[in-house]
Amino acid sequence: MTFWTNRAEYEETQPTVSLILQDLEHPGASLAAVFEYLASVFRKNAALLIEGADPVDPVHDIRVAAKRFRSLSRLLASEKGGKVLPDATPLIREIKENFAAARDAEVMRKTLRALPEETGGTRFVEDFSHLFAHAALDGAVLGQKTLQQVEELEGVVDQWPLASTTLLQVLSQVAVIYRRGYKLFEFCQKHHDDEAMHDWRKRVKDLGVVSVAFSGLPLPTSLVDPCDSLSDALGEYHDLAVLDEFLEKKGAPKRLKQEIHARKKVLRKECFRRGEEVFALSPSKFRKNLITATA
User: Which residues of 88-121 are buried (b: 16+ CB within 10 A; e: fewer)?
Assistant: First the structure.
């Protein structure tokens, strides 16, 4: 049976989708259980911030959970019964942005420290230390805000038809995620655009998360490790891009800017090399292989 032939009839024969996530205590959990687990990650780490814990790990864990939540929610992006699903993206974005200042300050501080001392970047480290300290002071407030947002988020998820979601519906969205990543891969190779590289990274993360989720299925090829590798390289590139933008406003030394630009150039090439492994198939071939392998 082809991908779109007799779709309604085919969906009726498919089992309710079940996922495997590496960090779940009970692999093979339903989508509902996965979202419930990620909500518990938000709550646990928000509570730590409210209690005054060191914010570095809780902020990191909240942002990672938000990205996974966003990625998996894309599996439900199609229409169901003529209705568009309530969109959780704005709430997920708000949760991430609660801690954007702390995350950016910490990342830029670490990135600067990794650069050769002779580039003159160490004198800016103190700037980011102050920025991070300021963000940390708001930890208790942001923790409370996150708890409120998670409650709203769960109200949205409660409206999703998770129990009746079929394998075919979800796999069709995996194909959409792959196509978007593929198109951005092509765009970034033709245009030197840091924002596009960041958008590509988001789609690669989406693909990586859903690849882990379906690692128990006989997919045509495993994208888990290639996506992780590419995501790491794109993450390093983004950290340098954020630092580059910040230092441009600060009047950074020429040698420091040259070092950052040189590293970005090397990373761009490495990202494209790794991208060839992830996006080796055309979107149409990927979709065909995906559905054939799980039929």
Answer: beebbeebbebbebbbbbbbbbebbeebeeebbb
